[in-house]
Amino acid sequence: MSVIDWLFDADPSIRWQVMRDLLDAPTDEVAAERAKVATEGWGARLLALQRDDGYWAGERAYFPAFTSTHSTLLLLRELGLEPQSPEARRAVSLVRERDVRFEYDDLPYFGGEVEPCINSSVVAIGSYFGVDVRPIVDRLLGEQMADGGWNCEQERGSTRGSFDTTIHVLEGLLAYEQAVRVSLEVADARRRGEAYLLERRLLRRLSTAEVIQPRYKVLFSPTPRYLYDILRGLDYLRAAGIEPDERMTEAIELLESKRDGEGRWPVEYAYDGEHHFEMDDAEGLSSRWNTLRALRVLRWWGR
Fold it and tell me: Could you give the C-alpha distances from 200 to 94, 163, 214, 293, in angstroms and in order?
């Protein structure tokens, strides 16, 4: 079985992205496949789990870690649930109308809270599903650090950016620009944040050139969630339309080295904890999510 056939033997959320990102399928065919996310497979299963009070699990938005309202909305976005579909509009309306709130100070969900990691994900979700999140965007812009990055530990005294936080904010700001409007100040903040990653070659300290965290080399699955890895960094740069350059070479070569003899990429780390249901194979086995993302990165790179 070819890699493409193997990817197609999967959920609609993977198939439509293969059609768009790897096969250049006609727009109407991609849209038809994408529409299935709301009514078939993982997307439909997630939507069916939302309670009448607007929450998916727990009594507040952020916990439990992988079944919470926040995590589920983020996952629905990653699956590509069509934001204008009746199913998406109903789900988001329930979150707003039933007044879903965060643990922190009982704040309303789409108003955000205090941590840039969480707020930037709310920006990505809100922008995607048509909710006004500009006040959170403004807060994030004011929290960018001198080195171009962001850090959730800033309020506790940190003066340097963090890869984990910075990738969250970059993804959120990009989602805002793609869905809402191009903003010069947002674009400038993103460019500074991208430079933060690129100057460090996506995994190394600027001061010593040492690898910042060994886990940056590990491919998470099914999606990166709250941690950074090289594939997440590369896939962001691809999505942002950044021209490939030599500062990405080490990360690209590391990514290529992880491909197996069948042309697939593995699950190298699966998060512990309760999930709604499994969306990938176990650690050490081939991952459709990682293979899809890796192939579109390499296509962007020119390989």
Answer: 42, 10, 14, 22
C-alpha 176: how far from chain center: 13
Mean pLDDT of 217-230: 83
Tens digit of pLDDT for each residue in 126-165? Answer: 999 999 999 999 999 999 999 999 999 988 888 899 999 9
Which of 268, 235, 239, 240 lies closest to 252, judged by CA?
235
**Residues across the chain:** 303
DSSP-derived 3-state class of residue 270: strand
Residues 133 and 126 sit within 8 Å (Cβ to Cβ): yes
C-alpha span between 6 and 19 (Å, rounded): 13
Helices (H), 103-162: 116-128, 134-142
Which pLDDT does position 222 carry in this prediction?
Answer: 64
- Concatenated DSSP letters of 15-68: HHHHHHHTS---HHHHHHHHHGGGTSHHHHHHHHT--TTS-SSSSSSS-STTTS
Write out the DSSP string of 187-198: HHHHHHHHHHHH
265 phi and psi angles, rounded to 5 deg: -115, 145
Decide: 296 and 21 in contact? Cβ < 8 Å.
yes
Structure tokens at 44: 């439909």
Contact 73, 120 (CB under 8 A): no
Q: What is the C-alpha separation between 180 and 133, in angstroms, rounded?
A: 10
Amino acid at the residue 194: E
Helix (H, G, I), strand (E, B) or coil at 181: coil
Residue 171: exposure state from Cβ atoms within 10 A (0-12, 13-18, ≥19)? buried
Over the stretch 233-247, which tens digit does the pLDDT of each residue have?
A: 999 999 999 999 999
